[in-house]
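pls read this stuff:
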Amino acid sequence: MGHAIADLSLTERTYERITEILDTIGGELAEALFGEMRSFFFLPDHKLLWSTIEKNVLSAEDIESCTQSYIRHLTEKHSGASLLIQHAHPFTVLHKIGMLGWIEASYLSGTRAVFLKVYPSECPVV
């Protein structure tokens, strides 16, 4: 990401252009990680899940809303196919492979927020 941004001229370094680069490269990294980790978990349609996420910091309510939207669209897409219980919580897969973490609450009142994620040694393979 840093190289792509550094390669921009100063006049090209707008908020919109940097956001576009971050979104593109972030998406490529997420796809690569999913490709490597796919054999360790089951998530029927990760691109459908991505489409329900509109921002990079989610509240518990946002996660619940995205989950409900994902399940609704997944059910529609697969003609009402019955979903296994594990599909009711697609964000657990993201958490277990380190793509979803939380911001330490004690830091929110200060000037610094710390992103915490689960590490492979802290959870079983899904």
In short: Residues 42-126 form one domain. The chain has two domains: 1-40, 42-126. The two ends are 30 Å apart (CA to CA). Residues 15-37 form the longest helix (23 residues).
